Amino acid sequence: MSFATASAYDAVREALSEQRCVILDGGIATELPQDLLTEGPHSEQLWGVRALAYSPAEVRAVHRRYVDAGCDVITTDTWGLASAVGEGGVRPWEDSSEPVHWLEIARRGVRVARQAVAEGGREGRTAVAFSLNADVDGEEGQETVRLLSRAFADEPPDLILVETLSLVSSSLYQTVERLLETGLPVWLSFRRCRHGLCGVYGQHWGGPEGDAFGRAARRFEEMGVGALLINCIPPDHVAGMLSFLRDFTDMPLGVYPNLGYYTNAGWQFQEGIGGEEYAEMALGWRSEGADIIGGCCGVSPDHIAAARVRLEGTKPGRRRREEPEAGDDGLNRTPRRHHSPWTDPRGRPMFPLPFPDLMVDGSTFTPTQGSFLVWQYLFENGIGKGRRCLDVGCGTGLQTVQLALNGAEHVHGIDVDTAAVDDTLTNAFRNGVAERVTAQAVDLFPWVPEERYDTIVASLYQTPVDPFQQASSHRPIDYWGRNMVDHLIGTLPAALTDDGEAYLMLLSILSQERTQDLLEQNGLHSEVVDFAFFPFTEHFQESQEQIERVEGLSDAYHLRIGTSDVMVAYLVKVTRI
What is the number of alpha carbons within 13 Å of residue 455 lying toward its C-beta? Predict the structure, then answer.
């Protein structure tokens, strides 16, 4: 099924042909009332779609502000729709008194955007782009596209924009072909910077690809894709990406980064960047060749309005940013700097001492050698006495209980698993320390500490993940096996008291160089206080190829003894410099 494109997209084509900057809108979800985003456990995955079911007038009001800002293209509030309709997806509209079919949500997304354009008197001048996230490239993606074609038959958008893509897989080319068969212009946008795959927090979560992404851009152009854009990354990661892509393709290029990041309290807006500051950055992107400029989450109509004024009358430039030097590209390769290796100042561990009485729920993560290493050190040295403590990833509560047994004033455990929180509280009671223990279900990535702690302990998940096992989210795939560790390190300056100390269990399949660089960037010092050997369990054996890939790209390592693979588990003490 094919649809004729509306006149509004003709205006976009004309602007591009005359080298006028096409202005895209900014964040939609982050402009909506926060209760429409944060209600329910799957709010981030759906990211604003539920507003179309319950408060379409609020969505139309946001669109109208962007229309009034002079946008040439506004996007529908349907980014999470592909995630919602997939197998096992969450459909927030089904709990309403009048259930709504997801295709009606799609139609409504286009309709309210069209209404805002009409109310703003910009019919024929502001195009409506139907937004889809990367889950449209999932197993059910082609069926989703087929059904969307039926919705578009009644109320077609002016173009389709697939956003926050990451990897270029063979299936993506097939999905793009199905989208192009609708007859609507198709734009693609990726979370990319010059260092490779990039996350909303600025993590580089994929291996170096050389010119593979550039060659993919050329293939997209040959297929008939209308524009290639970069989005959902911090603004300071944009530099150099457009000039890199221009070596491979002549199609229009665009950029629309985030301002801020997602937390458990809602979107944390980036301070210090107002309209004029954003407009200045937009001029820089224009000088590198941006044909299309807008904003992603956290970018407001005021930012876009200021950028539009400053960009008026400009031409796309061809300025090139300096290429990153070898080892200075933000990836987890061995960098140019060489740090002294960690050492153990205290020798071998003591004999085992009485172990806490633990009840382990069947679904809770059972302590491993890494957890035992942390426990042993806490017990041996009486860590936590008289201090306020935090156990990150508390699991069964082993470390929480031991800190309390050591005489901690108070211990707070956090874990993403509610069963783990229940086990921690139960085990605190079994060991007679319940009056000094609290625990809470917390997702570490959006977590913002509410107080500072004297002692923090953490034994976190550390397994490199093949990036082709991707999912659409603001959270990056853990290519290097260290996303949680890196995020915790970045949180330590806000979570530690001035004389506080953190004890982190780190496996040798993580890079020492990367860890020390990140610690130093956050004003932190580290030293190894203990270590142990950690066998390759079945879980790690399943990731063997990815672990070897990571070890080939960094100073990460493990030992092979006969036919057995063994990691080293280091216990690292972290303090402020």
Answer: 25
Helix or strand holding residue 114 (H, E):
helix 102-119
Overall pTM surpassing 0.70 (yes/no): no
Instruction: Give SS3 for 300.
Output: coil
Residue with tokens 């672990």: 547
CA 136 from chain centre, in angstroms, equals 18
Structure tokens at 109: 């997304």
Half-sphere exposure of 512 (CA within 13 A, CB side): 19
Residue with tokens 């040959």: 222
Contact 488, 504 (CB under 8 A): yes
* Main-chain dihedrals φ then ψ at residue 403, nearest 5 degrees: -60, -40
526 - beta bridge partners? 574
- Of 222, 226, 175, nearest to 73 by C-alpha is 226
Q: How far apart are the C-alpha atoms of 147 and 135, rounded to whole Å?
A: 15
Please state, in angstroms and rounded to a whole number, the distance separating the CA atoms of residues 232 and 471. 15
Residue type (1 letter), 215: R
Cα-based angle 507, 510, 514 (whole degrees, multiple of 5) = 135
Q: Tell me 466's DSSP state.
A: -
Contact between 569 and 376 under an 8 Å Cβ cutoff? The reply is: no
For residues 495 and 487, the answer to whether their CB atoms sit within 8 Å is no
Mean pLDDT of the chain: 86
Nearest to 135 by CA among 109, 177, 165, 112: 165
pLDDT tens-digit series, residues 410-461: 999 999 999 999 999 999 999 999 999 999 999 988 888 989 999 999 998 8
Separation in Å, CA 414 to CA 292, 357, 473 = 43, 20, 22
- Give the whole-angstrom CA distance, residue 184 versus residue 340: 57
Give CA–CA dist 417/313, Å, rounded. Answer: 54
Measured distance CA(332)–CA(558) in Å, rounded: 16
Nearest to 21 by CA among 215, 162, 227: 227
Query: What type of residue is 84?
Result: A
| 202-240 residue pLDDT tens | 776 666 566 889 999 999 999 999 999 999 999 989 999
d(CA 103, CA 93): 12
Gap between the Cα atoms of 185 and 5, Å rounded: 8
d(Cα 574, Cα 195) in Å, to the nearest integer?
Answer: 28
- Region for residue 195 given its phi and psi (left: phi exceeds 0; alpha: psi -120 to 50; beta: otherwise): alpha
Cβ burial of 186 (10 Å; 0-12, 13-18, 19+) is buried
Q: How many CB atoms lie within 10 A of CB 443?
A: 15
| H or E segment to which residue 162 belongs | strand 159-165
Residue in the structure block whose two tokens are 């390190």: 489
